[in-house]
Amino acid sequence: MTNYDAYNAQAVDKGSIWILFLLVGWSYGSMNKMGKQIFYYLTLGGCGLWTLYRLFTLSGAIKKHNKKVAVKCGLSTEDMLKLELI
Question: Quick one: which of 3, 30, 31, 47 is 20 to 30 A from 37 by CA?
Fold first, then answer.
C-alpha cells in the first residue's frame, strides 16, 4: 500500500462532509471527534450558535484533518502542496 493509498483511505471528502453537515449536522464524527459530535447533537448545535460557527469553520477543519492524515501517512511537503493542504 502506497502513502497515497493510505491517505485516500483515511482522508475525508470535503463535499460529502458539507452535504452531511447541511442535512443532518454531521461533521465532527467524520473527523474522529465522536464525543464532540454527540455533545453537538445533545445541545442541538449549541442552540444554533455552534451551527453558525461551524458554517464558517468547517472547510478549515476538513483541511486541518486531512493535513494531519497526510503527515501520518508520510506524504512529503510537495505531495501536500499538490493536494492543496498547505
Answer: 3
**What's the CA gap between 62 and 67, in Å, rounded?**
9
DSSP output for the chain:
--HHHHHHHHSPPHHHHHHHHHHH---TGGGT-HHHHHHHHHTHHHHTHHHHHHHHHHHHHHHHHHHHHHHHHT--HHHHHHTT--
Closest CA to 83 of 58, 61, 63: 63
Distance CA 79, CA 41 (A): 36
Mean pLDDT of 72-76: 92
Q: What is the pLDDT of residues 32-68, one digit of tens each?
A: 999 999 999 999 988 989 999 999 999 999 999 999 9
The total domain count for the chain is: 1
Residue tagged 493509498 (cell numbers)? 5
